[in-house]
Write a structure and sequence with these properties.
A hairpin with a 5-residue loop joins strand 1 and strand 2. By secondary structure, the protein is an alpha+beta fold. The chain has one domain. A two-stranded antiparallel sheet has the order 1-2. It is 26% helix and 8% strand.
């Protein structure tokens, strides 16, 4: 791996050089995953005002879209929201709600 940036000789005799930027083009940065809307944690659109009051009361102010899906601004916000609502992510990673 340490030599992966060194040019290598092709079968045709020409030197090849890796273009790391081109190889990673189109990949999303982890930091770009927030904010996002959660369908699974959503509520009926008619319940949004009630849930917003609940969220404020529990110290997790949250915005909802017109479909009733909560907007998670960060991993910490998502974790606090899920804890306040009693939700568990069974496919979670280390920083996700448990």
């Amino acid at each position: 791996m340490a030599n992966s940036s060194k040019p290598k000789k092709c079968d045709c005799g020409e030197l090849m050089r890796r273009d790391i930027a081109a190889e990673n083009r189109g990949r999303r940065n982890v930091c770009d995953t927030y904010p996002f809307y959660s369908t699974a944690a959503g509520v009926a659109p008619s319940q949004v005002p009630e849930m917003m009051a609940f969220d404020r009361q529990h110290g997790v102010p949250t915005n909802y879209n017109r479909d009733g899906e909560p907007e998670f601004r960060s991993a910490g916000h998502r974790r606090r929201y899920c804890k306040a609502h009693g939700l568990v992510d069974r496919n979670a990673g280390y920083s996700d709600p448990q």
